[in-house]
Design a protein that fits this description.
Elements lengths: L10 H27 L3 H16 L7 H25 L3 H17 L5 H15 L11 H21 L9 H18 L9 H12 L17 H21 L13 H11 L22 H16 L7 H14 L6 H29 L18 H11 L6 H23 L5 H10 L4 H29 L3 H22 L1 H19 L5 H23 L5 H29 L1 E3 L8 H20 L14 H19 L5 E3 L4 H25 L30 H21 L5 H15 L17
Antiparallel strand pairs: 1-2
Helix pairs in contact: 1-2, 1-6, 1-18, 2-5, 2-6, 3-4, 3-5, 3-6, 4-5, 4-15, 5-16, 7-8, 7-9, 7-11, 8-9, 8-10, 9-10, 9-13, 11-12, 11-13, 12-13, 15-16, 15-20, 16-20, 17-19, 17-20, 18-19, 21-22, 21-23, 21-24, 21-25, 22-23, 23-25, 24-25, 25-26
């Protein structure tokens, strides 16, 4: 009996139908009111295409209210773009130059996060629309009025018509994860000093909920502003804290609980990237002396959760945690087991301090208490400087954002040149096809254009038949347009580009048939323009970085690992040698590695969005995220080990500890260099995986060197986490056994090293 009833539409169709209804009502109302109510054909055209550009052909993330707010902010930008397009279009050379500059600038704004990226296509169309005949600057007022009217109707529709429930904010997600850290810290203060399975599962779920891939686009803290950076830092520091708590070893005089091993394994999968800046300094404390560190961590985390919830705590818990951390750092030496435990507690305390500080900045902005320099470098920067740092960090040929902006701006400029020289009828469609069909890889562009041309051909045949049969009966077109728009913007996003092009071809035929008398040749012009725009997009897709993020990801990760290897060698050498250290902003090599991380993260984000298809193994099987995690661990681990809060003279390590530490650092660096060589997409690089260094008897660290100080244990713990990351990188490339053995070898003498599973929002302000 159940088969007799139609199945309910899928969630994708329901979401598309809601959006299609809003676009149809806003665009249709603006078009009909201005065309038939006020006889303003130009204004009606801009009202219609303004709404379609910003909602039908763009993807604005978020709830209806969030999209309405974003649209309201874009209205002045649309005025500027329409004005520029109107005045620059009178000459072909100025129109082409304007298309090159404006096209690049709008595409490059994607570095600002998903909202900017989502609005970029619509804003491009708002500039393209006035760049074609009629070249009439005198109609600028009507163009601006029409576009404003259409956007105003769209804003109202977004706020009132079938609004979607808002997703939980990132602050709320972070607050729930911080509250889980409170429960974990409280539970670890008493026997059996491990976390039960249900608590581990909850912590893992809340930690994963802060990953960017698990957060709706509108809620991701990926912007360049102060609060967005601090909120991203809060999420990463919270994941670090949860990871360190779940990996915390029990006190040395307590036998490990049965669940401890599982908790430690889980920590390897969920520990947050050291990028959060919340990992530890050297272990220099003895448990049991001074304040209870886990209690101080719990209170500081509870205070941070209250702040994220909108309340205003007094900050005393944060100050108490700083005192507890200081007591740990000033503790006396003990047994190796005690030193490892205190090192782990110190890492937990530092993670909690970083999380608390970042949450304060995320909520209060520049009014927050002045944090220490270094990891919170952005706390006193103004918005223009932060934006400049974000833009300048991606202003180069190694950035996929820069590559995409160059590709699309050159393609649009070439399309405008061809349309202007050949005076193609309805040349707007040429640029529209170039903009909407060009992809980041030549293979994807080719596949998309094949489907689009097939759909356009079918749509052109339907439109030509309709125009030939109906003729000049405008009433038929006026009645048929709204339901056809509703179907187009419902079916097209779900069924794909072929269906979208077929239906949209008929839509534009019905629109232009109402603006001026049209014949079946209008469909022919549409097909010709789409074919021209597709060919231009294919050419520039082939000439400008045709493999998209594939090669760039391999290259950027190779550079990242080479810089990380240099820092590992330099850091272990300095730890072994000792000497005077001063509180500088960052350790040597920090900026170079940070910039390499920016480029690698942006390439990784684009790589994930591209169809994987028939990628050449083994690169497609690599755990690219593990490379990013290794970079973050290197970055902040070196900082915590070499940058003290105040000037200090550090004694050198003993001969045994020094030799063991340097040898271990060299092995980790060698593993990074070998992995880098396999990933670098140069012509003479072998694809045969080179094995990592196998552990030897002289390199084994099962036994702790005698009289090794706290700095030794902190450094070896850092190297163990890096080795775990390399093991994850090697899992799919044939070197699992040796890399895992090396990681186990180091960990035996150093305690537990964790590997993060973080997806950091793209941006150079990682801290």
């Amino acid at each position: 009996m159940g088969g007799a009833f139609p199945r309910p539409p899928s969630p994708a169709y329901r979401a598309a139908a809601r959006r299609a209804l809003r676009v149809t009502i806003a665009a249709g109302a603006g078009f009909y009111v201005l065309l038939y109510g006020f006889d303003l054909a130009v204004g009606a055209t801009y009202a219609l295409f303004g709404a379609i550009a910003m909602a039908g052909l763009s993807h604005l993330p978020g709830s209806g209210r969030q999209r309405a707010t974003l649209l309201l902010c874009t209205v002045p930008v649309c005025w500027v773009l329409i004005t520029l397009g109107t005045y620059l279009s009178v000459r072909t050379w100025s129109a082409v130059l304007g298309m090159l500059v404006v096209g690049f600038a709008l595409a490059f704004t994607a570095v600002g996060g998903p909202r900017f990226a989502g609005a970029a296509t619509g804003l491009q169309l708002m500039y393209i629309l006035p760049s074609f005949p009629p070249y009439d600057p005198g109609s600028l007022g009507e163009r601006l009025a029409g576009a404003t009217f259409g956007l105003a109707l769209l804003i109202i529709a977004e706020m009132t018509l079938l609004p979607e429930p808002g997703a939980p904010s990132y602050r709320d997600r972070a607050a729930r994860a911080v509250e889980a850290a409170v429960r974990c810290a409280d539970r670890l203060r008493s026997a059996p000093y491990t976390l039960p399975e249900d608590t581990l599962r909850t912590a893992r779920a809340l930690s994963d909920g802060l990953r960017s891939s698990q957060v709706p686009e509108a809620e991701r803290p990926a912007g360049a502003g102060l609060r967005q950076r601090a909120l991203a830092h809060t999420g990463l520091a919270t994941r670090t804290l949860l990871g360190r708590l779940t990996a915390l070893p029990p006190p040395p005089d307590v036998a490990p609980h049965a669940g401890a091993g599982a908790g430690r394994a889980d920590a390897d999968a969920e520990g947050a990237a050291t990028a959060a800046g919340g990992t530890a300094g050297a272990a220099e404390s003895t448990e049991g002396r001074g304040p209870d560190p886990l209690r101080a961590v719990a209170e500081a985390a509870r205070e941070a959760a209250e702040r994220l919830r909108g309340r205003a705590p007094d900050g005393r818990a944060h100050a108490a945690l700083e005192q507890a951390r200081q007591a740990l750092a000033e503790g006396e030496d003990g047994s190796p087991a005690e030193l490892r435990r205190n090192a782990a507690l110190l890492e937990v305390a530092d993670a909690a301090l970083a999380m608390s500080t970042a949450a304060d900045i995320a909520v209060r902005g520049r009014a927050a208490d002045a944090p220490a320099p270094g990891r919170f470098w952005y706390a006193r920067q103004r918005a223009p400087r932060l934006w400049w740092r974000r833009l300048s960090g991606h202003a180069g040929g190694r950035s996929v954002f820069f590559q995409n902006a160059v590709r699309i701006s050159l393609a649009l400029a070439a399309a405008r040149l061809i349309a202007g020289i050949d005076t193609l009828p309805h040349g707007f469609w040429v640029l529209l096809a170039t903009l909407t069909l060009t992809r980041t890889t030549v293979r994807e562009t080719r596949t998309t254009e094949r489907k689009a041309l097939t759909g356009t051909l079918v749509g052109a045949l339907v439109a030509a038949t309709l125009l030939a049969l109906v003729g000049t009966d405008i009433e038929v077109y006026a009645v048929a347009l709204p339901p056809l728009m509703l179907v187009t913007f419902t079916v097209g996003p779900v069924k794909g580009v072929g269906w979208a092009q077929a239906l949209f071809t008929v839509v534009v035929a019905l629109v232009f048939a109402q603006l001026a008398p049209a014949t079946w040749q209008l469909a022919e012009f549409r097909l010709l323009d789409v074919l021209t725009g597709s060919a231009i997009g294919a050419v520039f897709g082939l000439l400008a970085w045709p493999r998209g993020a594939h090669d760039e990801l391999r290259r950027s990760v190779a550079v990242l690992l080479r810089i990380a290897a240099e820092i590992v060698v330099a850091t272990t050498a300095q730890i072994a040698a000792g000497g005077r250290r001063v509180p500088v902003l960052t350790a040597p090599g920090h900026r170079s590695l940070q910039h390499a991380l920016v480029l690698a993260e942006s390439a990784y984000a684009q790589y994930q969005s591209e169809p994987q298809g028939r990628r050449t193994p083994p690169p497609a099987r690599r755990d690219w995220q593990a490379a990013l995690i290794a970079g973050h661990h290197t970055l902040w681990g070196a900082d915590r080990l070499l940058v003290p809060p105040e000037p200090v003279v550090v004694p050198p390590l003993g001969p045994d500890a020094s030799e063991s530490l340097i040898r271990t650092g060299d092995r980790v660096a060698a593993g990074m260099l070998l992995t880098s060589a396999r990933m670098d997409p140069t012509g003479d690089t072998t694809e045969t995986p080179a094995p990592l260094h196998a552990p030897t008897a002289s390199a084994t660290m099962a036994a702790d060197p005698p009289d090794a100080p706290r700095a030794y244990y902190a450094t070896v713990s850092w190297l163990a986490s890096l080795t775990t990351d390399l093991a994850r990188l090697a899992e799919e490339t044939g070197t699992t056994a040796t890399a895992t053995a090396t990681a186990t070898d180091i960990r035996t003498g150093a305690g537990t090293g964790t590997a993060a599973d973080a997806e950091a929002p793209v941006g150079e302000g990682r801290a």
